Amino acid sequence: MTSPDMEARRMEDTNVFYRDPALYDAVQSDSGSAETCQALIERHRPDASTLVDFGCGTGRDVEILAKHYECVGVDLQPGMVEYARRVRPGLDFRAGDMRRVRLWKRMDAVTCLGNSLAYVHDNDEISKTFGTFAAHARAGALLVICSPVAPVIHTEPTSAEIETPRGPATVTIRYEWDLRTQINTMHRRWVLASGEHAQDEIRRRVLFPRELERYANGEGFEVVDMVDENGAGLTGSTAYTVARFLR
Question: What's the whole-model pTM score?
Answer without folding.
Answer: 0.90
